[in-house]
Design goal:
The chain is α/β, with parallel strands linked by helices. It has 7 helices and 10 strands. The protein is 33% helix and 30% strand.
Length: 222
């Protein structure tokens, strides 16, 4: 495996009036292409902020985020947005599906810029891969929590990203659905060679990853 992503002494400070919150404190991280990495820590540890910096959503106050040799936060905002759309797939605890669209449309919407016919075909292929082809015309209200998360994962994959970033992806699911979603991430990692970085408070599901790091009080620990 080769180096895909590197964080060097990244710090994120939020200023709220007179209050100064150091959400991430000098975190350094190396992620190899094809790796499945979990970062475990309690709520408020800085995990989501770390993930947002990796994904081009949140510039660090100090330090650098290098992806594929590019310093993300030296890019122009439009270039960074294009990079994020083509390179990163995000999966969150809450599915953020559009209630007025069915499963197929929710997935396809993320790549309509490549043409409607292409987008719908790609979405159909992904739903079939995730064993959801029979739910393609179902609306979010008609899907179980596990099925909604699978639709969200298909949406994250539709632009064929290099890296999938998962923020508490099983936090809203029952045990059976948790297991199925984790099996799916392992399948994506092994079959599609996708790099996966997952943050979670759940040490049990983190065992599915190849490597686990811990985060406490904004500090990333080995």
């Amino acid at each position: 495996m080769s180096k895909l992503l590197e964080l060097t002494s990244t710090t994120k400070i939020y200023q709220n009036g007179a209050d100064r919150v150091e959400a991430v404190k000098g975190a350094s991280l190396l992620v190899e292409g094809g790796q499945f990495l979990a970062v475990v820590g309690p709520s408020g540890a800085g995990k989501s902020t770390l993930l947002h910096m990796i994904g081009g959503l949140e510039p660090p106050t100090k330090g650098e985020v290098i992806f594929g040799g590019m310093n993300l936060y030296r890019m122009k905002s439009n270039d960074l947005a294009r990079w994020r759309n083509s390179t990163v797939g995000f999966v969150f605890q809450f599915y953020h599906l559009i209630e007025e669209l069915n499963a197929l449309e929710n997935v396809a919407l993320a790549c309509f810029g490549k043409g409607r016919i292409y987008a719908l075909k790609k979405a159909q292929e992904l739903l079939k891969y995730l064993d959801l082809e029979k739910r393609a015309e179902f609306f979010p209200s008609q899907l179980s929590g596990g099925e909604k998360q699978k639709v969200a994962i298909a949406r994250a994959l539709v632009n064929d990203p290099q890296i999938i970033l998962c923020d508490e992806p099983t936090g809203n699911l029952d045990k059976d659905s948790q297991d199925k979603v984790m099996q799916l991430f392992n399948r994506l990692n092994k079959d599609m060679k996708k790099t996966v970085v997952m943050v979670t408070h759940n040490q049990e599901i983190a065992k599915e990853a190849q490597k686990t790091l811990y985060m406490r009080g904004g500090e990333l620990l080995s």
